[in-house]
Structures are given as structure tokens and as C-alpha cells.
Amino acid sequence: MLDALPLRLVLASASPARRKSLQSAGIEPDVLVSGVDESLVVTERAEDLCLELARLKAQAVLGRLRPTDDERTLVLGCDSVLAFDGEILGKPDNEADATWRWERMRGRSGVLHSGHCLVDIVAGRRAEAVASTVVHFADISDHEIATYVATGEPLAVAGAFTIDGLGGPFVERIEGDPGTVVGLSLPLLRNLLAELDLRITDLWTKVAPGNQIVDPLG
């Protein structure tokens, strides 16, 4: 019976980059922001922190959903942190914090960890894992740091940088899946779906040139 139900994916994240990653891969998620207070979780390991926050985000959204007989709802919680120089770095507190971080990070490298927690509400099952990618930062100038921080972009993202936005030129290379740095690893999502006996192609939608959804793919 479950196999016959249409799938609905709910993304428990306010991140437009995560939503865009899914859309680019043919998946149109519903979005419900979890509202989880990330400061409440304290741990010494970046991998543990991002996974626990991903769990909490998924759980918070689960509490606002009710299963129905006509669809199979999946909830995806994600969270990202940067492990750098023995510290765990989430979003900067303010511009001064973002500037201080970049003054330390430039010319060096860190590891971006993204936790993923996928819950199948109807089946009552969960799959979760962490994706990790090494990020090598360019040795950027004080002027570049000040100009970048002034845009406000570093204040909204873990580690104070992006690779899919204004921060892209300041990342020289990465070792791993680029999606991990964006905050959602599509290969990992495929593996998590497989653990729940699902295929990522089950979530594909056919999209017309104007980006409007036409109908689900079979």
C-alpha cells in the first residue's frame, strides 16, 4: 500500500540554497521552518552537533504535520557547521565575528559537516547521516574580507562563507561533494532514501521551461 502513495518531501529548513539544490535535482519540496534554537545543543564534535540539530529540526516539523491516507510524507532536516582549528563554527554572531573568522581562515582549510535526518512519517522509519567536505580557502585581502562581510551574506551561513554565492571566488577548492558545503548532499539523500526502500527518482517532477511543475514522473 505504501508504494502506491504519492510522495511529499517537506524540507525543515529556511535555507534557500537547500531548496534550490532540491529543485535543481527535479524535486519540489514543501518548506516548513523548524524554529529550533541551535544554541541549546552543545557538543565537542562537529559531526555530532550537526546531526543532532538535523534531528531536532526534523522532529520539530514532524510535530506540526498529520499523516494522511492519500500521500506518504517525508521530512528532511539538515544542519551544517564548519570545523576549523579545533572549533565548531556555525553562523557568525555579527560582522566583527565574521571578519575575525575570515582573517583566520584565509589561506587555510576547514571541514564542513552537514547532518541529514530523513523521516518517513507513514512508515515510522528514519535514516540519518553526516556528509563532510574539506574546504580550502583563498588567501584573500583585508579589503576583500571587509567588502564581503559588508554584503551580509557571511552572517547568514555556517562558517561565514558560501560556494554558490558571493563567497564562491574565495574558496579555492574542495575535497568532497559540493552539495555538502551548500548544506544538502544529494548523493547522501539518495542513500538515505534507499535505506527507507525509496528511490530518489520517486521524488522527481517533470518541470516545464518556465519552471512550473507539470506532473509527477512515473
Automatic annotation (TrEMBL):
GO terms of molecular function: nucleoside triphosphate diphosphatase activity
Enzyme Commission number, as recorded: 3.6.1.9
Entry keywords, A to Z: Cytoplasm, Hydrolase, Nucleotide metabolism
One GO biological process term: nucleotide metabolic process
Presence of the UniProt keyword Hydrolase in the record: yes
Reactions it catalyzes: a ribonucleoside 5'-triphosphate + H2O = a ribonucleoside 5'-phosphate + diphosphate + H(+); a 2'-deoxyribonucleoside 5'-triphosphate + H2O = a 2'-deoxyribonucleoside 5'-phosphate + diphosphate + H(+)
Active site: D79
Enzyme class: hydrolase
Cofactor(s) this protein cannot do without: a divalent metal cation
A Pfam family it matches: Maf
Localization in the cell: Cytoplasm
One cellular component (GO) term of this entry: cytoplasm
CDD domains linked to this entry: Maf (cd00555)
SUPFAM superfamilies reported for this sequence: ITPase-like
PANTHER family: BIFUNCTIONAL DTTP/UTP PYROPHOSPHATASE/METHYLTRANSFERASE PROTEIN-RELATED, BIFUNCTIONAL DTTP_UTP PYROPHOSPHATASE_METHYLTRANSFERASE PROTEIN-RELATED
Family, per entry: Belongs to the Maf family.
Free-text function comment from the UniProt entry: Nucleoside triphosphate pyrophosphatase. May have a dual role in cell division arrest and in preventing the incorporation of modified nucleotides into cellular nucleic acids.
HAMAP family: Maf
Record protein name field: Nucleoside triphosphate pyrophosphatase
Species name: Micromonospora sediminimaris
